[in-house]
Design a protein that fits this description.
With about 375 residues, the protein is α/β, with parallel strands linked by helices. It is built from 19 helices and nine strands. The chain has two domains: about 260 residues, HUPs (Rossmann fold), CATH 3.40.50; about 70 residues, Tyrosyl-Transfer RNA Synthetase. It has a seven-stranded mixed beta sheet, sandwiched between helices. Strand 5, helix 5 and strand 6 form a beta-alpha-beta unit. The structure holds tryptophan. Tryptophan binds next to strand 5 and strand 8. Its main location: cytoplasm. Keywords: Aminoacyl-tRNA synthetase, ATP-binding, Cytoplasm, Ligase, Nucleotide-binding, Protein biosynthesis.
Length: about 375
């Protein structure tokens, strides 16, 4: 029997007026999220310049802007993945999305854009979980609607440019079974109800669906959950690019892994894509004015940025010229809010337009191909 994990260290963060959990991200009293505190409390390792340079050296290409700019700022054992890679050992990538809306917003794209870079730079396979079961339970969607949204989201994901020869996308409703399910059951027996409550804040009134969900997100970090891909490679390491609110699932996976005889998954974790109103939370699919969607037109983007985007600028031109704000040219008072917003609108409209074109080219057949349970013989080439 695997050993039961019941270490009482909570991974969610509710002190310091910040709440960061898989379901809520907020900072009270209008303050910014303090990422230094997050690092301390979650026990992350920090991604520093040395690590970024090491990635550049090992991959022979410039680091992604999200790494250079500190968007991906924290990790767990990413250095060990690099040590192994240097010795010639490969790994696989795992990330996912809970399909809660028809179209993705820019915050959703961050882990996928980054996973695409990691996949290309390290030449490794990627598995993508569409947790349609999760959103069905949390957002009160019907099973049918969740499955439909999952396929729609898969199109946006494919539009990020992933290679079919190295990428497997799966929906929980379709894929749950076989060794994947066996691992879920093994995992469940390793975690007490106390531990689940403490980690995720479940209450007695939460239904069993919610309480039994976390193992389903955790076990794709074990290679044996994908026998068609990694059969005989039970020691393959897993690297998970994700936003820090997903950390509790994988902290738990790391706690459980040794008792099931698996490697602990490594993580590379990002800060949140701020909502348009400031830096106190994250873009939310259910709050249209907090987010820019990949389906927004250039005109909508312009209106949202001009009307709703918090800039940090001063309340009058005079004060702005005198005190400045928080960006270089802008901070020094040389650029005005309108000029900064104009530049932002250009950048975002360009990105959204490129995405729109790529998504229009994704067919239902392509979705079926990416989601087919199949071996990927060239995934490490
Ligand atoms: N729980 C995530 C969400 O709400 C979706 C998800 C499933 C995920 N598996 C993942 C995110 C793996 C990151 C990595 O969107």
């Amino acid at each position: 029997m695997p050993e039961i994990v019941d270490s009482r260290d909570s991974a969610t963060l509710e002190e310091d007026h910040q709440v960061i959990s898989p379901w809520e991200v907020s900072s009270k009293h209008g303050g910014k999220i303090d990422y230094d505190k997050v690092i301390d409390r979650f026990g992350f390792q920090r991604i520093d310049e040395t690590l970024v340079e090491r990635v550049e050296r090992l991959t022979g290409r410039p680091a992604h802007a999200f790494l250079r700019r500190g968007i991906f700022f924290a990790h767990r054992d990413f250095d060990k993945i690099l040590d192994a890679y240097e010795r010639g050992e490969k790994f696989y990538l795992y990330t996912g999305i809970g399909p809660s809306s028809e179209a993705l917003h820019l915050g959703h794209l961050v882990p996928f854009m980054f996973a695409k870079y990691l996949q290309d730079a390290f030449k490794v396979p990627l598995v993508i979980q569409l947790s349609d079961d999760e959103k069905c339970m949390w957002n009160n969607l019907s099973v049918e609607e969740s499955k439909r949204l999952a396929r729609e989201n898969a199109k946006d994901i494919i539009a990020c440019g992933f290679e079919k020869t190295r990428t497997f996308i799966f929906s929980n409703f379709s894929y749950l079974g076989g060794v994947f399910y066996e691992n879920i059951v093994r995992f469940r027996t390793c975690v007490t109800a106390n531990k689940a409550v403490e980690t995720f804040g479940f209450g007695g009134e939460d239904h069993m669906g919610k309480i039994t969900f976390p193992p389903i997100q955790a076990v794709p970090s074990f290679p044996s959950s994908f026998p068609h891909l990694f059969s005989g490679k039970d020691n393959l390491s897993c690297l998970i690019p994700c936003a820090i609110d997903q950390d509790p699932y994988f902290k738990m996976a790391r706690d459980v892994a040794p008792s099931l005889g698996y490697q602990k998954p490594a993580l590379i974790e990002s800060s949140f894509f701020p909502d348009l109103q400031g830096e106190t939370g994250k873009m939310s699919a259910s709050d249209p004015i907090s987010a820019i969607y990949v389906t927004d037109s250039a005109k909508e983007i312009k209106t949202k940025v001009n009307k709703y985007a918090f800039s940090g600028g001063q309340d009058s031109i005079e004060n702005h010229r005198k005190y400045g704000a928080n960006l270089e040219e802008y901070g020094a008072g040389r650029m005005l809010t309108g000029e900064v917003k104009k530049r932002l609108i250009e950048v975002l409209s360009g990105l959204v337009e490129r995405h729109r074109k790529a998504r229009a080219a994704v067919t239902d057949e392509m979705v079926d191909e990416f989601m087919a349970v199949r071996p990927l013989p060239h995934m490490f080439d």
